[in-house]
Amino acid sequence: MIRVENLTLQFGRRILFDEANVFFAPGNCYGVIGANGAGKSTFLKILTGVKDANKGTVHIEPGKRLAVLKQEHFEYDEVTVLNTVMMGHTKLWSIMQEKDAIYAKPDFSEEDGIKASELEEVFAEMDGWSAEPEAASLLSGIGVVESDHNKLMKDMNGNQKVRVLLAQALFGNPDILVLDEPTNDLDIETVSWLEDFLLDFKNTVIVVSHDRHFLDTVCTHTVDIDFAKINTYTGNYSFWYESSQLALKQKLAQNKKMEDKRAEMQAFIDRFSANASKSKQATSRRKMLEKLNIEEIKPSSRKYPGIIFDQVREAGDQILSVKGLSYSLDGRPLLKDVDFTINKGDKISIISKDSLATTAFYEILDGSLKADSGDFEFGQTITTSYLPTDNEAFFNDEPMSLMDWLRQYAKIKDEQYIRGFLGKMLFSGDEVHKMSNVLSGGEKVRCMVSRMMMKEANVLLIDEPTNHLDLESITAFNNALINFKGTVIFTSHDHQFTQTVANRIIELTPSGIIDQLKTLDEYLADPKIKETRKEMYEGHLVG
């Protein structure tokens, strides 16, 4: 379907791809992974013809249609939402426009009639009469209500535009579907809808995502960009991660016999294959794993941050009491009657369909925003550490080295002490002298995590920690919160992150809160909660 041969791309001295080769077969879903800066998005741009490589070729089977999730949110501002979706099938859209232009002619000729008839035939062969209802169905499924379908794109907000452009990519059953971070800005229900859509999609999918649950659900193969090469492995992200970790452990155990290594690896494959029966793609994935050659599994060169949250003092029984918090923004209620008490051992996921509501909640607890009404009180023994979703305020001052930046927040100013915390977040050697004004989004988050670890608080307040982080950092962060002995209050759109950390869900709605001592999956599966959520988002209080 798509073959990439001898792909080479170099920026100055930096080699991104060096004679890389990869083949994408029909019917498979490929999850493209790699550390931040490895070239994932650049690779997709080369595949889709947006960017040229220094050397190499991309062969797409003749006659196959490729669709891509657009990142330019203003390209269609003067187009209606419904038409924007249908424009995803460029050939069909072109025929529709040409056909309509002929019919609109005031001096419609016999020649025009013949041409229109030919276009109508092609239009029917392409199932053009179903285009509009299919586009409307996609929009509704992805969370764009019918009343918005005929609005101009410029009248839609940023999150809605993302959904429309995703529907555009999915429209018309493309032969090859290329998606770069498709779950960004989608709520949990819409991500689940997209997972189901891709599971039923029969053609080739190539996707970059930092959402491990999403990759595990939809992907049949993992494409790893590492050491300027591109390697394809059978199985989803978790299989790749666990098998690469096992291969690395075996590599370090130099004295282990080859027969023992093979037996251990085969046992792992058998176990994972059995677990595949629980997945939505059970049959196909199990068959793939049965055919897997043990020698294909290689250790990864990835480095995982050493995230460890210690508490200098264990919290007492009084953690946090919140009473009647309400807050509105421009007349729109974000928080209403937020009322709960945190118990020792709670790890709470704060969720909402509106990210402004969750961020406002954390800013109120942090003291940087004042509620319209209500109050809250932390216990006497409580120390908090807050990771905001927007950290720009921490890097807006005079540029300074990472050493000096972190030293601001350190009780102990010793260089080795500070280097230790930066080193845990993979800032080693001369990197600690990097200036704070040239950091990437992911590097800034890693600096903020160093600051959090240094504080040794017993209550962590965390708003969207996985934004800008690569899969390695997300995995390390996830494990750190699972192992943390204190209290965690957090928000994350990463399904696996929330499912494995939270033992309690509090949902903020415009009508009040829903508070349940459940995991995320239990919460979403409960039919009574589903009905309550529906009513509360419609603005009806539930008794």
User: Strand count, sense and closure of the main sheet?
Assistant: 6 strands, mixed
Strand order of the largest sheet: 5-6-7-3-8-9
Kindly state the number of beta strands: 18
Average pLDDT level: 90
Label the structural class.
Answer: alpha/beta
Q: Looking at the structure, what is the overall shape?
A: globular
CA-atom Rg in angstroms: 26 Å
Number of helices: 19
CATH fold type of the domain at 320-537: Rossmann fold
Oligomerization category of the chains in this entry: single chain
What is the architecture of the domain at 320-537 at the second tier of CATH? 3-Layer(aba) Sandwich
Distance linking N and C termini: 56 Å
Q: Which residues form runs of ≥5 with pLDDT under 50? A: none
User: Which CATH class of the domain at 320-537?
Assistant: Alpha Beta
Detail the topology: elements first, then pairings:
Blueprint: E1 2-11, E2 14-24, E3 29-33, H1 40-47, E4 55-60, E5 66-68, H2 81-86, H3 90-103, H4 110-125, H5 131-141, H6 158-170, E6 176-180, H7 188-200, E7 204-208, H8 212-218, E8 221-226, E9 229-234, H9 237-252, H10 258-275, H11 282-291, E10 320-329, E11 332-342, E12 347-351, H12 355-366, E13 373-378, E14 384-387, H13 402-407, H14 415-424, H15 441-455, E15 459-463, H16 471-483, E16 487-491, H17 495-501, E17 504-509, E18 512-516, H18 520-525, H19 527-537
Parallel strand pairs: 3-7, 3-8, 5-6, 6-7, 12-16, 12-17, 14-15, 15-16
Antiparallel strand pairs: 1-2, 1-4, 8-9, 10-11, 10-13, 17-18
Helix pairs in contact: 3-4, 9-10, 10-11
Compact summary:
This protein has 543 residues and is of the alpha/beta class. It has helices at 40-47, 81-86, 90-103, 110-125, 131-141, 158-170, 188-200, 212-218, 237-252, 258-275, 282-291, 355-366, 402-407, 415-424, 441-455, 471-483, 495-501, 520-525, 527-537, and strands at 2-11, 14-24, 29-33, 55-60, 66-68, 176-180, 204-208, 221-226, 229-234, 320-329, 332-342, 347-351, 373-378, 384-387, 459-463, 487-491, 504-509, 512-516. Among the domains are: 76-171, no CATH class; 320-537, 3-Layer(aba) Sandwich (Rossmann fold).
